[in-house]
Design goal:
The complex is a heterodimer of chains A (118) and B (306). With 118 residues, chain A is mostly helical. Chain A contains 6 helices and no strands. Chain A is elongated. Chain B is α+β, with helices and mostly antiparallel strands. Chain B is built from 7 helices and 13 strands. Chain B is elongated, with a radius of gyration of 28 Å. The chains are: A mainly alpha (118), B alpha+beta (306). Chains A and B meet through helix 1, helix 2, helix 4 and helix 5 of A and helix 1, helix 2 and strand 1 of B.
């Protein structure tokens, strides 16, 4: 009986060691990642950049194309997710306003009316 | 009796456990739970990211923020990476607007205080720019995050981290980070590499270097502050209306404002900058005689922006 207990204990110990090795010592490294795998704070900063560009260019089609890199969600959803994160993290109001403005534009933007779009 | 036998079963259990643990960590962990950093992006996505940083810089003129964002991409020399991308954009027939934005940010990095920060990949410590000043907050409906009211004044402690700024310098900190707050972006016209007064030819010294064979027409372009200017298009023409167009910055090892053209010393060339200015005519080979054997020298054309 004691042998079984030791055996299970060693498996558990080995599992812990294995997970530690796989996660900490030699973790899976991401190479050639697509933008939709970016961490949420990076995604939010990306959206903020798009919003900054939009504030200058006033080109919703360009903004939508830039946002499309962040995944298959609609531009409005991408911006709203970023806005929620920015609000949670207490971004400065100037940045929030830029993202909000972009969100408003994306909520009404229709690529069909642009004659192209994304 | 059995307990005094070889503890091979313990080793077996340990190996089995290690295998399970590694399999869990490497294989069974869902890939979509991995969180990438900008430096992990595929090369073409990095280019898009870099372009967006440059365009955002055009909008907000915040060099510090642009530097921090560029640091996330892990480029050894962000200014050079920007300049190279500007050249590639032009060379591939891409948008000159984008190339100008990239070139302008490259030039600004060389001039501005952010240069050292970005170029050296200095770690930006969280809280390096403490900001406890009153800031605006916006009320938001949780179901619809689009704020609808004018911001109201409220004093809040501001997070001061920049996303992954330290990661870019090699520290993979898992703590959540938020972009560095900055002053309200201002929308101002952005200088580009070729805006402002046209470049004028300062001088044309003959470079006598026997190691340069065949001889070159070397073009150096500097702005009014004496900084090299990348992304300036140069047009060389010669016999029978043949022309060649090249741009500064393609050989950053010689400086961001450098470009060259291999010349045939028997041919007479005319050169001008696409941005404007008078053409320089009658550029042809000239012998250097500072060695036993004469050899063809290279022309160095120094352009400056008055």
């Amino acid at each position: 009986m004691l042998r079984y207990i030791f055996f299970i204990f060693m498996i558990a110990l080995g599992t812990i060691l294995g997970v530690f090795y796989a996660k900490e010592v030699n973790p899976v490294s991401i190479v050639d990642a697509p933008p939709d795998t970016l961490r949420q704070d990076f995604k939010t900063d990306y959206v903020l950049m798009v919003a900054e560009v939009y504030s200058l260019e006033q080109d919703p089609a360009l903004a939508a194309r830039q946002l499309a890199l962040l995944g298959s969600k609609t531009p409005e959803m991408i911006v709203n997710e970023a806005l929620r994160f920015a609000l949670d993290q207490g971004y400065p109001a100037s940045d929030l306003i830029l993202i909000r403005d972009l969100s408003l534009v994306m909520s009404t933007w229709n690529p069909d009316l642009e004659g192209g779009g994304t | 009796m059995s307990n005094r036998r070889s503890p091979i079963y313990l080793i077996t259990g340990l190996i089995l456990g290690i295998a399970l643990g590694i399999a869990y960590g490497w294989i069974w962990t869902p890939v979509d739970t991995l969180e990438a950093y900008p430096k992990d992006l595929r090369s073409d996505f990095k280019d898009s990211y870099r372009e967006l940083i440059a365009r955002a810089y055009q909008a907000n003129q915040d060099l510090g923020r642009a530097s921090q964002r560029l640091a996330l991409l892990g480029d050894e020399d962000p200014a050079r990476a920007l300049a190279l991308q500007a050249q590639l954009t032009l060379g591939q027939g891409g948008s000159s607007e984008v190339a100008s934005a990239l070139g302008a940010l490259a030039a600004a990095l060389q001039d501005g205080p952010g240069t050292a920060l970005a170029a050296n990949n200095t770690t930006i410590e969280p809280g390096a720019s403490p900001d406890a000043s009153p800031t605006n907050t916006i009320a938001v409906d949780s179901t619809n995050p689009v704020p609808s009211e004018t911001p109201t004044q409220q004093t809040t402690a501001q997070p001061t981290n920049t996303p992954g700024a330290s990661e870019a310098a090699g520290t993979q900190d898992s703590a959540e980070r938020t972009p560095q707050p900055s002053l309200t972006p201002t929308v101002t016209p952005t200088p580009t590499a070729t805006q402002g007064p046209p470049f004028v030819l300062l001088d044309i010294p003959l470079e006598c270097n026997p190691n340069i064979d065949p001889p070159l027409i070397q073009v150096y372009v500097f702005d009014g502050a004496g900084n090299p200017v990348p992304g300036v298009a140069v047009i060389v023409s010669w016999d029978n209306n043949q022309t060649s167009r090249f741009v500064t910055g393609l050989k950053p090892e010689y400086g961001l404002g450098y470009a060259d053209f291999t010349m045939d010393p028997q041919v007479t060339y005319s050169l001008r900058l696409e941005a404007g200015g008078d053409p320089i005519n009658s550029i042809t080979g000239r012998l250097c005689e500072d060695q036993d054997e004469p050899y063809w020298g290279s022309w160095r054309l120094n352009f400056v922006q008055p």
